Amino acid sequence: MSNKPIYVTRPFLPPLEEFIPYLQEIWDNKILSNGGPFHQQLEEALCEFLGVKHIALFTNGTIALVTALQSLRITGEVITTPYSFAATSHSLVWNGIKPVFVDIDPNTFNLDPARIEAAITPQTTAIMPVHCYGHPCDVVAIQKIADNYNLKVIYDAAHAFGVQDAEGSILRHGDLAVLSFHATKVFNTFEGGAIICPDAKSKVRIDQLKNFGFVDEVTVVAPGINGKMSEFNAALGLLQLKHVCLALASRKSIDAIYRENLKDVPGIRCLSRSEEVVANFAYFPILVQPDYPISRDDLYEKLKDNGIHPRRYFYPLISDFPMYRGLPSAQRENLPVATAAAQQVLCLPIYPGLTDDDQRRISQLIAE
Length: 368
Ligand code: T4K
Description:
The protein has 10 helices and 16 strands. The chain has helices at 20-29, 37-50, 61-71, 87-93, 139-149, 200-209, 231-262, 296-305, 336-344, 356-367; strands at 6-7, 54-58, 77-80, 98-101, 124-128, 152-156, 164-165, 168-169, 176-180, 193-197, 214-216, 219-220, 268-270, 284-288, 308-309, 345-348. It is globular, with a radius of gyration of 21 Å. Helix 3 crosses helix 4 (87-93) and helix 3 packs across helix 6. By secondary structure, it is α/β, with parallel strands linked by helices. Helix 4 links the parallel strand 3 (77-80) and strand 4 (98-101).
């Protein structure tokens, strides 16, 4: 057992020497960005790995979200979840869109489809759900509502790399789905992200938007942004992809050990997963319930005092941030399930390389 701090996650990094040939190639051909060879190769490799047809790489998940909304010309109001990372709602505001918060489902912690219709107004143009912790949303119910009201659906799939439902990749749902490849994610390119596009036409538009709106050397068709992934990051992605199955397998076994260790601890609930889903074990959230002897925050402090750094994803709720809390939909009475979840959740360390000893120690500290 080491005395090193144990964080909620640690990036998975293949051996450094395996990266050198990629660097050498970049140095040799001197293409550093703007859709170079590694960028092309990573797009192809990810399409194959994820089982999707079209993908557009980005510099990070947040710019990808902002661009996804731009590409669909979303305006007015968008229904979204308060139980997510700040980027979800911030991407709306960066497009001049008003977020409308709807409560989450108590079992999945994803946007509750049963509550969406009541939040639709004449200004509503889209729904932006999050596959929180990589657990799939109720995609069928959400699409049905979207079809009935002629709304677009943009999935924030930042946590959902590699997740599959019974018919294939979860990323195929919605008008667009957005991934994050941040250092803390299951698959990382240090910083990075992507939009999964349903067809070649939408990919062309997204590729233009992420490159300032350029179509060719002299033609600019939209006020685009710089969202391009560099060759360095794309090369990292190609290397990570070679090892990602091992990383996923390691996460799976950590998840199973936690579930076994914590199953009989009074007051601790592990979030369940659907058996039909091929999961990615991106996070290990537990709920510290009222019958646990100490509060969630006291447990958080106790673990920290022992060198373990879990995170309260997602506390505070986005709807409690100062720039959102004045919105009518942000009121806590409107969001009882999310409010309770934010007060009880603790995401435990999960990453390839977390040792059995460390995991046992974490479980013991929670159980004792
Ligand atoms: N939508 C959703 C639903 C998201 O969760 C996110 C990002 C986005 C959109 C936006 O995607 P990006 O634009 O980021 O691609 C982290 C990540 O920065 C963020 O990407 C992620 N969600 C969020 C859930 O978690 P913080 O502020 O908690 O990160 P930080 O720096 O405190 O890192 C957590 C722990 O990870 C540290 O205690 C130590 C470890 N760590 C972190 C980094 C950056 C390392 O060991 N090495 C590292 O390089 O937000």
